[in-house]
Amino acid sequence: MVPLIWRGASVWLKRGSLLATVCFWMLLLGSGGRGTLVALGVAGLTVALLMGRPGRRWLFVQLGAAGAGLLLFLAGQAQGWIASGGLLARNVLTDSGRLAMWRHAWELMEQHPWLGVGPMHFAYAPYGSGLAHPHSVLFQWLAEWGVPATLVLGALVVIGTLRWLGYARRRVRHAGTGFEGAMRVGLTASLVAGSAHALVSGVVVMPVSQLLLAVIIGRLLAEVPAYRVEQRPTWSRRGVALAAVVGLLAMAPALIRDLPALTERKEQYFEATGSLRLSPRFWQQGRFGYEASAFVASERKQ
Asked: So what's the pLDDT on residue 300?
C-alpha cells in the first residue's frame, strides 16, 4: 500500500502494489473474514481523520482496490475458477460462536482472577473449552493471565498506541506524501487494523500474524527518534544476517523430505475431523482442540 500513496514511487512499483492490493481484497472476500473487514474499516477511518491528506488518500485507494477486488471475485466465481461462497454468501449477522467463547473465558477469569489459568490453557481439556483460543486477545488475556496482568499489558498497549498516533500525526502532516509520510500512514493503518482485529479474532495466536506483528512493531520503533540508531553495517551484523540465511536454507531439506507425506497427512486429517476444507483459512488444517474436545466428551460420559 505504501507505494500507492508515495508520490516518489516508480510507475511499475505503483502498478505492482495496486495489483497486490486488489488481489488481497479478492482473497479477503473469498475467505469470508468479517473481522479483517471491520479492522480495515477502523484503520481507514483512523488514518483519514488523523493523518490529513495522506491518510484520506490511503482510504480512497483502499476503497478503489476493494471495488476492483469485488469485481475480480465476482468474475472469478462466474468463470468457475473461484469457489462459490465467501463473504457475500455468509450470514454476517451471526456471532459464529464467539459470544459463547467469550462467556467461557469470562467464567475462567472469575474462577482464576489473579493469575488466570495459565498461558495457552484456554484449550486445556479439563477447563472444558476444546478450542485453541476465545477469538479475542482481551478475553484470552483475562482467562489465561488474569486481571492484573491484563490491566498492566492493556495500559502499556494503549499508551504506546496513543503516543505513536500523536507522533505519526505530527510527522505525516510535516512530511506530506513523501516516503516518510507514506510509510507512517501505512504503519499506523497496520497497527490500528491489527489491534482492532485482535479484539474479535485469534490473530495473535497465528504464527504468520505473530511474525507480521513483530515486523510492524520493529519498524515502528525504528521510526521513533528515541529508538533510532544510525549505524553502518559491520562485519558482525553481516555475520548474523548470513547465519540467519544459512539457518533458513538448512531447513529446506526437512521441508522437501516432508512433501511426499502430505497425502498421508491429508487422509489422517480427514479421519480425525471429517473435513478437507483447508483453505483459504489455512489454520483449519489443524484442530488444536480436537484431542481436548474428545477428552472432555469421554470424561462427561464417565
From this structure: 44
Tens digit of each residue's pLDDT (9 = 90 or more) over 20-55 = 999 999 888 887 788 889 999 999 999 999 988 888
Is 220 within a domain? yes
Question: Is 173 buried (19+), middle (13-18) or exposed (0-12) by CB count in 10 A?
Answer: middle
Domain boundaries, position 211: 2-89+146-227
Q: Is residue 206 part of a domain?
A: yes
Residue 182 in domain: yes
* Alpha-helical runs (H) found in the chain: 2-5, 11-31, 34-50, 52-79, 98-111, 137-145, 147-175, 179-200, 207-223, 235-258, 262-273, 290-301
Q: Is 43 helix (H, G, I), strand (E, B) or coil?
A: helix
CA dihedral 45, 48, 51, 55 (to 10 degrees): 120
Based on the number of CB atoms within 10 Å of its own CB, is 175 exposed (0-12), middle (13-18) or buried (19 or more)? middle
Work out how many domains the chain is built from and give that number.
Answer: 1
Q: Which three cell numbers stand for residue 248?
A: 533458513
pLDDT in tens, 180-211: 888 889 999 999 999 999 999 888 888 888 88
How far apart (Å, rounded) are the C-alpha atoms in residues 273 and 186? 39
pLDDT in tens, 100-147: 889 989 999 999 899 888 888 887 766 666 677 889 999 999 999 999
- Phi and psi based region of residue 135 (left: phi greater than 0; alpha: psi -120 to 50; beta: remaining): left
Q: Mean pLDDT throughout 54-61? A: 91
In this prediction, residues 208-226 reach a mean pLDDT of 83
* Residue at 272 is within a domain: no
Q: Which amino acid would we find at residue 231?
A: Q
Q: Rounded CA gap, 258 and 94, in Å?
A: 39
Answer yes or no: are the C-beta atoms of 76 and 26 closer than 8 Å.
yes
Neighbours of 295 (CB within 10 A): 15
Question: pTM (2 decimals)?
Answer: 0.74
